[in-house]
């Protein structure tokens, strides 16, 4: 798993499976971040091929933590097996999901332009 911090964007890139073990690793990485107001937390799931119900826990906890701190958490590059889990649990309507990282950048830039207007 790799982690990148640029400006106000925190990028999480879990790899493999987000099950009990992978979910614990993701939770630990998210816990290391000190949330700052207006940060954007991105969880890039492009290298995740499998997620079970125990993998949903760190995602929901991360979303709750981000929102409580005034941050925004989004998902991107969600593959079909993971998307199916999100849809079955109806969490696809709770999370902001983008097809790829570039679409997030465009959305954030457009939002900043609207705020500046």
Characterize the structure shown:
The chain is α/β, with parallel strands linked by helices. The chain has a single domain, classed as Transcription Regulator spoIIAA, CATH 3.30.750. It contains 4 helices and 7 strands; from the N terminus they run βββαββαβαβα. The strands form 2 sheets. It has a 5-stranded mixed sheet. A two-stranded parallel sheet has the order 3-5. Helix 1 packs parallel to helix 2. The N and C termini lie far apart (38 Å).
How far apart lie the N and C ends?
38 Å
Q: Kindly identify the CATH topology.
A: Transcription Regulator spoIIAA
Fraction of helical residues: 40-55%
Any idea what the CATH superfamily is called?
Answer: STAS domain
Count of the domains:
1
Which spans of ≥5 residues are poorly predicted at pLDDT below 50? Answer: 113-117
How is the largest sheet built, in terms of strand order?
Answer: 1-2-4-6-7
CATH architecture call: 2-Layer Sandwich
Describe the main β-sheet briefly.
5 strands, mixed
Please write the string of helix (H) and strand (E) elements.
EEEHEEHEHEH
- Strand share of the residues? 25-35%
**Number of DSSP E strands:** 7
Mean pLDDT: 87
Q: Give me the Rg, rounded.
A: 14 Å
Q: Which structural class should the secondary elements be placed in?
A: alpha/beta
Shape assignment: globular
